[in-house]
Amino acid sequence: MILRGIILEGAEQMEKSELLRQWIADSDNIVFFGGAGVSTESGIPDFRSVDGLYHQKYDYPPETILSHTFYMEKTEEFYRFYRDKMLALDAKPNAAHLKLAELEAKGKLKAVVTQNIDGLHQAAGSKNVLELHGSVHRNYCRKCGKLYDAQYIKNSAGVPMCSCGGQIKPDVVLYEEGLDSSTMQAAIHAISQAEVLIIGGTSLAVYPAAGLIDYYRGNKLVLINKSATPLDSRADLVIQAPIGEVFSAVC
Questions:
Q1: pTM of the model
Q2: Which side of the chain, N or C, has fewer Cβ within a 10 Å radius?
Q3: Cα(10)–Cα(143) distance, rounded to whole angstroms?
């Protein structure tokens, strides 16, 4: 009985993969919206996962440390955590990143909307990447606006300072901070115009980003995640599997 169940489950997964493959083949207006699960396959931990950053050496939970208030009041402690946990500069793009870049190069994928801040989509070759939460690769002086790369932050000690004497801040959206309005508008436009919307590697639990699904008007909404999401019932196709594995199979 167990074997039969496994065979049936595998057959269903193959049918779903084939349907997704067909939708991708037939469309030249695809948008991808991804979350932390896209990057975990590159070895970048999801700081909300129970086996991730909660088992760590800090006196505060990650959501507290990665807040605007904590950054302003305990800046040195913020950077101790940030360097240790958020700057995975040796990570490489995985199959999902690479396949999405290929689809864009073929003119099929119009945009990547991402909640991730690691820059791996660009490293894989994607051009139109809408970073809802910013990027660790952009850092700016709060006094003069001079830009610094992630390696500068990684190699600095204490609170990184600009040559002008100003304090440097990562261009990432911290808790209590609002999303960039122009990036949000671009994401809304791309999603509202998409024929196929593929959402992958996200639990769809973080708002306002998760609310972007409301702007999709088509009938080919695909949710790919290793576990169920609160919005599975709204999808036209749900695949519970690692995102890289799925893209390797269908693209």
A1: 0.90
A2: N
A3: 57
